[in-house]
Amino acid sequence: MFTHTPLRLTALSLLAIGSLAYAFVAGFFGLEILAEIAILAILVIALDLVAGFGGMVSLCHGALLGVGAYAFTVAANAAGLSAFPAMVLAVALSAGLAFVIGAICARSIGIYFIMATLAFGQMAYSFVFQSPLFGGDDGLSGAPRPDLSAIGIDLTDSRAFAIYAIAMVALTYLVAAATLRSGLGRSLIGLHHNEKRLRALGLTVWRAKATAFAISGALAGLAGCLAAQHTQYISPGLLSWTVSGEALVVVILGGLGTLVGPIVGAVLFVVLKHEISALTPYWHAIVGMILIAVVMSRANGVFGFVEARMAARKPKPVLQKADADA
Amino acid sequence: MLETRNLTKSFGPIHVTKGVSLKLEKGERRVILGPNGAGKTTLFNQLVGELTPDSGSIHLDGADVTALRVADRARLGLSRSYQKNTLFDGLTIGENLGLAATVAMGKGQGLWRDPLHSAEVKETVREVAAQVDLAPLLDMPVNAVSYGIRRQLEVGIALATRPKVILMDEPTSGVGPEMSKGFHRLLKALPRDLTVLIIEHDMDLAFDVADTITVLNYGEVVFDGLPEHARESQLLKDIYLGAWEDA
Amino acid sequence: MTTDLGFWVLQTLNALQLSMLLFLLSVGLTVIFGLMHFVNLAHGSLYAFGAYMAASLAGVLGYWGGFFLAPLAVAALGAVLYFTLIRSQRRAGPMAQVLITFGLIFVAVDATRLIWGDLPIGIAVPAVFEGQLALLGVEYPIYRLFIIALGLAVLAALTLVLTRTQVGAMIRAGVDNDQMAACLGINVERMFFLVFVVGCALAGLAGAVAAPVLSVTPDMGLQILIPTLIVIVIGGLGSLKGAVAGSLIFGFVQTFGAVLMPTFNSVLIYALLAAVLVIRPEGLLPAKG
Amino acid sequence: MNKTFRAALAGLVTSTAMLSAACAEDIKVGLLLPYSGVYAALGQDIDDAFALGLATFGADSGATFEIVREDDEVKPPVGLAKTKKLILQDEVDVMVGVVSSGVLGAIRDTVDGAGVPLIVANAGNDEATGEACSPFITRISFSNQQVNRPMGKWMVDQGVKKVFTIAPDYAAGRQMIDAFTTGFTAAGGEVVGQEWPAFQKTQDFGPFLANAKASGADAVYVFFAGGEAISFVKQYDSFGMKAELPLYGSGFLTSALYVEAQGPAAEGVITALHYVPTLDNPENAAFVAAFKEKTGRIPSEYAVHGYDSARALVEAVKAGATDRETLAAALPKVSFTGPRGELRIDPATNNIVQPIHVYETVAGADGLTQKVLATLPAEADPVNGCAMPAAVN
User: Where does the sequence pass through the membrane (chain C) (predicted)?
Assistant: First the structure.
């Protein structure tokens, strides 16, 4: 079950303080990177919610993010909604789509689930890529940023936007943590361990999976809205399965099923990517090798590794009752 | 309370359940006996809906549930334990019971509150833990306890749904004689209005808890009656003891 | 134009040609999965490697040098991968496998860029297969007929090996139940290695025969991956029949979709896939049950 | 574009502009090109030729040029992020590059808002010098319509009356074919059928070729580039269609960059482009020789964009430009005779005006070469909704 261990709380506080402090001192490019990290963090929290806790390893989260980004941009530009209603609409659309995908894929497990989500993600990608309404390969520009001038915040300023994005990460984290502690979250974790038993206990498995996937999809859609607001330009590449693959990489890099770890992973991934790509155009290969090394090491990512080390230092719980037959 | 009519199921040429008709009254304790491969677990799987029968029907508390799915039947008060432990391995014993209670109470899809900390779930967990003798171990992770304790939890999870009918598939399989006896003490202490159907291997213990006995052989009911009659039945001895000695 | 018999013949041949190319790719991937439960996302990269090797070798030894040696080179690379990455990850679960082989794709794309550069490479069709053949009233490129024939030949050979030989029986037993196969005294480890390497060689062969038709580019492995995965998911993971069925379905839907309903074409195949997943989550002809 | 954002950017820009004015003779150039992804080879060609151009013409300009390179990965959001970095962090005086029209579309508002001059060294989307034109964006490469429109009339003049067109289904493909169709039908030709294969998803063009064959056309006119161009030309030849149904197209189809990969299949294909390495003029001879010496390759049309971008930048500096503002004002005024012939910038759109060369790919002494059949006179693109502010300076 999901709990906030002291280590996790410490890591969260450090991340919050660190990112906010950096937001106040960083230069322009630092703020861009901070916003990039924040958007990726939202996506990977969403992914960890279903993949890490529910065992639903999705390769369509990039597509869900992209749907959010496109829905937001189209709602704001073509339909003329202001930013916040457009965000609500986009998040709802991502959630609805995720619910349908989750419901259809609920019967598939393991690699079948991965393949099925990959297929749905590519379907969305092809649709957007092909559709002239969405600007095809060239994409769409002009996604607005929310207008917070009423409370004295100008989100067109990079610093304000970075802080706004960090606040959204916090919101995402709270939603994810609350979900994990709700009845649905408990069921989701149970499903990961033993789907058959939960069904025998009376759980409508497909609905639980679809609902959890919808919540995750909503968060991915939120990440999409922020991505659109951040670059103010979107293209079908956002929906590509490689974005989902990269998100999965980040979750693994940080620590699957820890909710905090993926945030750490997002920080590491973005910083690493910028550092390495400054050195060589072949940075993909280096990222690939790091990924292989992390997975081969069998540690649960960077944060998972730290957690395991800390747990190893604590004394093991002792059996309170003698076993008649071990 | 639980009734089957002419239940039949075959896998290709092999009949695993052949015209099985059973009727359990409320509060009845019935033991199903039969050699390996007699179709006992297959019958359970059909009762809870994990397998669909080829023909025949299943009735729970007067309602035809043959077309209902596993989860729907569970919500009507049908619960089961498995011959092979089917637990939530990463969680603690308390969380296992809590999760079962949560789902059974229909809170498994809830979004707003933490059911594990709700009074009702906590109360159920406490009661069931007492019933299956796990009260002091609630905080132990499942993967850190012995096999015998896991067997107890297996039944505990089934009980945590507060069922009307519970099906137990060899609850003492693989545990030693001492623990097995303790288990039967627990079974006898269950509330009298709970209908219990048990697959059991150990004849003596079976006769100890059973109100009635059903014997299956090659998917067919070959005996259905009181334990004392079963004890005297030559047919039963031939089939059951023959197979028993072979094993 | 659609009432013209020639149109249907031509498009059927096109569909078959695409199907056979996909069959060569998917059969290795699917049998490896059926046997080892290993999903190799880098299978497309092996195909690209085969195409590059064929292109390079063709420059030195002529087309047939590339045709025969490229699959061997890919098999050798497969053997290296097997011992360094695959073997230790066999039991690591699908996610670890997906991620490791995803990482491999990144490495493979940049490796081909480093070795062969960013520019597309092309190789010529071998002299014997130049030109067209008149067939049922249409002129069809001989080389494409060769691809169809090659695919059918490989299918026939694999069917023979799987149904008539002892190795084939072992592989079928392994796909059915690997524990039982191990109990029967089959050297599972050696069988896995064999199947993996042969699967890689077939991917290399696919690359080699595709090279003269398509252009050889660093991202060709990534481009072919999704179609290949669709083929094996539609067909059912792990089965030879599934790979055949999936390849044919993909080839025909793609080809006729492209000319008859171009606006829906790209979504069509995914919609079909979704339908299969809803109705039969394990694919049309899964290896088990 | 959000007004406050533009204002914020402009504020940042003026403060940084004053900083850079201090050392006027140093021009900081931000080179935004794909160094990875599908267009990496194009990026490399432009990069090599740009450096060559600076070395060739920059020496006597009195200025020193510092180059900051960024990889846009052919991904619009990445291109935008890198653009912001170049403008706000590196504080470049001028940006050069952009291969993909998608990237150009993505960065257009940022460049325009920040008032940083951008020399477009490839991306050919019509909007960039049409409705989305900017006084800060000068295109030294080509526009999609420019390369294709004149070919329509020329083909009719050659006796081609009925044409079947094929191009990938994306903005550039549509623009190229639509411009050709306009020119072709205006001259009296008839388009008897069209196919739009899915962009970057189609590897086998066989299904579309069958339709072209059955259409009763005199010729086929296509646009493809990169790997798709190689596949298409080879597959067209393999179906034996070249003899009965001659293949025409936009010149990217048989670009010098990858015509070798097409091999004999490309022989006899007639296409039109703004640059061919075999153009017979002294500027081109010097360029080809220098580029070959530097890289060992024959320069492509992409290379010439890089070379002429450098030349244009140097010309602007020679005209007295020193910073973003003056460069932006000077760049649209440059004109010179380069390897492509006489070039000038159309003040109405800031798009290049250049002659178009019709060429046939033929077998030469060492491999395939380009035989120029005709040079069609330079023609400025229609304004297409471009409203240029009256004056920048």
Answer: 20-39, 70-86, 98-116, 142-162, 192-214, 220-240, 252-279
**What SS3 class is residue B225?**
strand
| Most confidently modeled range among A91-95, A137-141, B71-75, D120-124 | A91-95
Higher pLDDT: B90 or A200? It is A200
pLDDT of residue D390: 58
The answer to whether A231 contacts D169, with C-beta atoms less than 8 Å apart, is no
**Residue A92 CA from chain centroid, whole number:** 16
Q: Which residues contact C108 (CB under 8 A, 6 or more apart)?
A: C42, C45, C48, C49, C221
Chain D residues with CB-CB distance to C123 below 8 A: 263
- D380 in a domain, yes or no? no
Q: How many domains does chain D have?
A: 2
pLDDT at B180: 82
Q: Is D197 on the interface with C (CB under 8 A)?
A: yes
Residues B190, B70 share a domain: yes
* Residue A182 falls inside a structural domain: yes
How many domains would you assign to chain B? Answer: 2
Whether residue A267 is predicted with pLDDT greater than 50 in this model: the reply is: yes
Residues 94-153 of A with CB under 8 A from D: 126, 129-130, 135-139, 141-142, 144-145
Q: Residue D106 is nearest to which of A27, A129, A141, comparing CB atoms? A: A141
Amino acid code (one letter) for B232: E
- Report CA A132 to chain centroid distance, whole Å: 28
Q: From the CA of A211, how many Å to the nearest CA of chain B?
A: 8
| pLDDT for the residue numbered C246 | 95
The SS3 call for residue B168 is: strand
Co-location of B238 and B130 in the same domain: no
Mean pLDDT value across residues A31-51:
95
The answer to whether D75 and D37 are in contact (CB under 8 A) is yes
Highest mean pLDDT among A112-121, C225-234, D178-187: D178-187
User: Is A237 contained in some domain?
Assistant: yes
Between chains, do B157 and A201 touch, taking CB under 8 Å as contact? Answer: yes
Residue C69's φ and ψ, nearest 5 degrees, are -85, -30
Give the CA dihedral B148, B152, B153, B157, nearest 10 degrees.
Answer: 150
In this structure, the answer to whether residues D152 and D234 fall within a common structural domain is: yes
Question: Is the predicted pLDDT of residue A229 greater than 70, yes or no?
Answer: yes
- Domain assignment present for residue D10? The answer is no
CATH number assigned to the domain comprising residue A198: 1.10.3470
Phi, psi (deg, nearest 5) at residue A135: 80, 5
Residue C172 CA to residue B99 CA, distance in Å, equals: 41
Q: Is C94 in Cβ contact with A110 (below 8 Å)?
A: yes
- Structural domain boundaries enclosing D319: 21-142+280-354
CA pair distance A178, C161, nearest whole angstrom: 56
Give the pLDDT score at B207: 81
The pairing of strands D118-120 and D94-97 is parallel
Q: Which of B70, B104, B145 sits opposite A199 (nearest CB)?
A: B70
> What are the backbone dihedrals phi and psi of residue C288, each rounded to the nearest 5 degrees, phi first?
-115, 145
Residues 6+ apart with CB under 8 A from A208: A184, A187, A188, A191, A198, B108, B109
**Token digits of residue B229:** 């009659």
Domain that includes residue A283, residue range: 6-325
Sorting pLDDT into bands at 50, 70 and 90, what band is B203? confident
CB-based contact, C265 to chain D, within 8 Å:
yes
List, for chain D, all residue ranges whose pLDDT scores fall below the cut of 70: 1-25, 390-393
Q: Which residue, B98, B132, B162, sits at the end of a domain?
A: B162
Shared domain for D86 and D195, answered yes or no, is: no
Contacts of A73 in chain D (CB under 8 A): none
Assess whether pLDDT exceeds 80 at residue B240.
no
Q: How far is D85 from chain A (nearest CA, A)?
A: 6
Average pLDDT value for chain C: 88
pLDDT tens digits along B164-173: 999 999 888 8
How much is the pLDDT for B128?
93
The neighbours of chain B, by the rule of 3 or more Cβ pairs under 8 Å, are A
